[in-house]
Amino acid sequence: MLWEKWQHQILVIRHDLLKLEGMRLIKKEVKKIQESNPIINKPNIFYTFIFNGYRNTLIMGIKRQIKVKKGSISLLGLLVDINKNKEVIERVIKPNNYYKINQIENDINYIKEQTKIIARIADKYLSHIDEEIVEETITIDTSEIEKVLKDLVDKTEYYLVVLGKGDLRMIPNIEGRWTWRKIFETPWIVKNNKCSTP
């Protein structure tokens, strides 16, 4: 019963993190488009809107994966549950060079430590306006947030293997699902109620 529950949860976690990883890849490509074109590579509040939205989406997405609460599915919650019931997983797979008994506890501690600042930003800045924040400034670079995301993606890929779902990879298929670059080939401003096409 627990094994099946864990297998279900790791698939839900995979789906959620793949969406974030897909956003990271799209943001990377948009940044390339911007920086390679000197006409548009200038300070603009629109870029602030795009990249701040991306940053905040990553923060809240990571916060979802570290929430440990009954009724919620998260990577940290899954690992805590597995750690409490090690005998279940060790009945199915024996500790070996890939899976080690103390790995789960190490990963729990690592995730908690790496996500401290992100969790605080999500709680104090994004989910609501906290009075304490008036006297406190918390900052974190987007590249640091992306590094935490990569860590969560890597650990999810590891536990997909541990939980018997190793045929599934943590690679988002953005090219196959979205021809998203085409939006930049079409004029955005409508003139005389008609949009000119290239």
SSE map:
Blueprint: H1 2-36, H2 45-65, H3 75-84, H4 86-92, H5 103-114, H6 116-126, H7 142-162, H8 174-177
Helix pairs in contact: 1-2, 1-7, 2-6, 2-7, 3-5
Describe this structure in words.
This protein has 198 residues and is an all-alpha fold. The chain has one domain. The protein is 61% helix and 0% strand. It has eight helices and no strands. The longest helix has 35 residues, at 2-36. The mean pLDDT is 88.
Compressed to H and E, one letter per element, the order equals HHHHHHHH
Number of H/I helices: 8
Work out the oligomeric state of the chains in this entry. single chain
What is the distance, rounded to the nearest whole angstrom, between the alpha carbons of the first and last residues? 58 Å
Q: What's the gyration radius in Å?
A: 21 Å
Low-confidence stretches: none
What's the pLDDT, averaged over the residues?
88
What is the 3D shape?
elongated
Strand content: under 5%
Helical content band: 55-70%
Q: How many strands?
A: 0
The largest sheet is: none
Tell me the count of domains: 1
Helix/strand structural class: mainly alpha
